[in-house]
Write a structure and sequence with these properties.
The chain is of the alpha+beta class. The chain folds into 2 domains: about 50-95 and about 255-374, 3-Layer(aba) Sandwich (Beta-lactamase); about 105-250, DD-peptidase/beta-lactamase superfamily (Beta-lactamase, 3-Layer(aba) Sandwich), CATH 3.40.710. The protein has helices at about 1-30, 55-70, 105-120, 150-155, 165-175, 180-185, 200-215, 215-230, 255-265, 280-285, 350-370; strands at about 45, 75-80, 85-90, 100, 235, 250, 270, 275, 290, 300-305, 310, 320-325, 330-335, 340-345. A hairpin with a 6-residue loop joins strand 11 (about 310) and strand 12.
């Protein structure tokens, strides 16, 4: 009997030890594999926990773990109520690393045009494009070009062709004078008849900004936008004439992108200073043209003025506007949630594949990030 009792006690101890090991192992397995906690840096960002701002940390961890499994993903940041709540960097990306943000550049240019009008460098957006380029008017310019206004260029309704990786695109970026090429290129349709995605239109605006201010667009941006926001613009590529690319070419850190999104969420105001007129923010984020491209869980995709607009399809129906770049570079502003979401990805892929990857990121933001809203 005593022997049985000793064996029974020994078995119980073994069972308890085994159970404890399983429990420890189980707890260890459920530990999050990544951290979403933002780094505390001396860059002006206020840091908060997701729960303090009405979001679920667990849901955000699941979303960030999903993002970390994608080889093309570089970063995800979540801002709410002015606080940076979560950030993650993947595949070698880092918090202080500025990367190529592709067509997100266009939305920064939209802001700069608003500032230029407000500061009196440009009278208004109804001015005609050709009035800024008399040097190219040799009597053989297509008559419709004289009807194109700055507003047409800003809304991509000037009549130019849809940018794609075709012979015209290659001929344009390989030409010795990008502005002359766009002025000589025949229009697809009369101004304001239809919307066509046109980086060339944005590039013309960059040249006009330089002509009217006497400053390179990057210098104007640093003085009137980046310095007040306390962020850096380390690089913005230029064409053969020295004009900064209007449609792409900026290199920015994700936190710089988030700060710009926060500026627009607050209708152009930052730390008590109105950097962009609120009316300009409202006007340029108002949809102007229906876009029939597939957009996943962002429905009713439309184009505004170098900004995109749409509505979320799940986790609540919220209107949003966004700066969007090749392959999933995004600054998504959701006013109804007082939120900004930033994503950056590897942009090294074809024109066709880039939109497929972008739609995957749209779905990730709407389905996974917004599921954290409590």
């Amino acid at each position: 009997m005593k022997r049985r009792r000793r064996i029974h006690k020994k078995s119980c101890r073994l069972l308890l030890a085994t159970t404890a090991m399983i429990m420890v192992s189980s707890c260890s397995f459920s530990e999050p594999s990544i951290s979403i906690t933002p780094l505390h840096l001396a860059d002006g960002w206020q840091i908060s926990t997701p729960e303090e701002q009405g979001l679920s940390s667990d849901a955000l961890v699941r979303a960030f773990e999903k993002a970390s499994q994608w080889s093309f993903m570089y970063s995800t940041l979540v801002v709410r109520n002015g606080f940076l709540l979560a950030e993650g960097y993947f595949n070698g990306a880092a918090v202080d690393q500025a990367r190529y943000v592709a067509s997100v550049t266009k939305s920064f240019l939209s802001a700069m045009m608003g500032i230029a009008v407000h500061e009196g460098f440009i009278a208004d957006m109804s001015q005609k494009m050709m009035s800024f380029f008399p040097e190219y008017d040799q009597g053989n310019v297509e008559p419709a070009k004289f009807d194109i206004t700055l507003r047409h260029l800003l809304q991509m309704r000037a009549g130019y062709w849809h940018d794609s990786n075709d012979a015209r695109w290659q001929a344009w970026v390989n030409s010795p004078d990008w502005i002359e090429y766009m002025i000589r290129l025949p229009l697809e349709n009369p101004p304001d008849l239809a919307w066509n995605y046109s980086s060339g239109s944005a590039h013309i605006l960059s040249a006009i900004l330089t002509k009217t201010t006497g400053m390179k667009a990057e210098d104007f941006a640093r003085q009137y936008l980046f310095a007040p926001l306390a962020i850096e613009l380390p690089r913005w590529d230029r064409d053969p004439q020295g004009y900064n690319y209007g449609g792409w070419g900026m290199y920015l850190s994700p936190r710089a992108m988030a700060r710009f999104g926060l500026l627009y969420l607050n209708r152009g105001r930052y730390e008590g200073q109105q950097l962009i007129p609120a009316a300009w923010v409202d006007e340029t984020t108002t949809p102007r043209s229906i876009v029939t491209w597939p957009s996943g869980l962002i429905r009713n995709l439309q184009y505004a003025s170098l900004w995109w607009t749409g509505q979320t399809a799940v986790n609540g129906q919220y209107s949003l506007f966004m700066a969007q770049g090749h392959g999933g570079q995004n600054i998504v502003v959701i006013p109804g949630l007082n939120m900004v979401v930033v994503t950056t990805t590897n942009p090294d892929l074809s024109f066709e594949d880039s939109w497929t990857q972008s739609v995957k990121i749209f779905n990730f933001i709407v389905l996974d990030i917004l599921s954290a809203v409590q």
